[in-house]
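User: Teach me something about this protein's shape.
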Amino acid sequence: MLRNSILLFAVSLAWASEYQFISEADRALPPTTVAACTTLVAALVMLFIVGVVMHRPIASTFRARPEVPLVMAVIAVVVPKLSVVIAEDSITADLASLVGTTVPVLTFLITVFITRQAEYSHLRMAGVFAAFLGMLIFVGIDDLAAHKNEITGALIMMSGGVAFAINGIFSSLRAQDLDQYALTTLVLVFGGTGLGVAALLVDGLPPEVPDIEVLASITGSGVLAMGLAYLGYYLLIADSSAYFASFYAYLVPPLGLLTGVFFLDESPTINHILGVGVTLLGLWLLTRSAPGKKTAREDFM
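Assistant: First, the predicted structure itself:
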């Protein structure tokens, strides 16, 4: 249990740190280029670890069902990654880490009201409202008109969260019998390739080589926040359960707030602390299952 708890903390910290890395890279490179570079780095890391070290069946996984990694590359990587790097032009890294936890919220709403895979409960719906209320408190509910950029950025990022939530439902229906390590690698390879082509078409080649801090941020995001974090997440699921692994949603917001304080010199306010607390309360209510009730399995890549 201690090993899994440490791994859960490490994965959560890696995902929380992604927003700090992207914030640094965004200041020197266009969003599409940042998304492409970080994803391609992650793809190379996963190809080496999963293909060379772990000897997982990457090629045969693709041949078994080629449409699955191609679709998931779009809804699990391209759209969510672009939404994050675009959103961080107008929101801070700590707010981004808070908005990133809306995936369980959006998955619940989709599986209850659209796909009908999960049962409605008043308690979990209260969790949905609390989670969104926490984000409004974090931004500043007393003067929302003065925070239009932050709200716009949060909505952009949440649109990527919708795609990511759909990915979880799609993978639970179409990818459960595939090797998850090989599938994740394929998704990152195709997602990185698609983003790379888009970056060349939209942004072109950078006029100059970015400085060492930007390159370090891109490498950190690709290696730690995507490659090793995804690998650790699936190791955690294999060694414990998807339910235990889903606790990352509780750790990412406070860790995102702390990393912003230590690495970006951000100053948390009472609103920030209260907003994170209310959002965590919402997530706790959302993940509570009524005894004897059947709930949809929520697998998030």
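Now, about its shape. Residues 247 and 255 are 13 Å apart (CA to CA). Residues 2-286 form one domain. If you'd like, I can walk through any region in more detail.
User: That's plenty for now, thanks!
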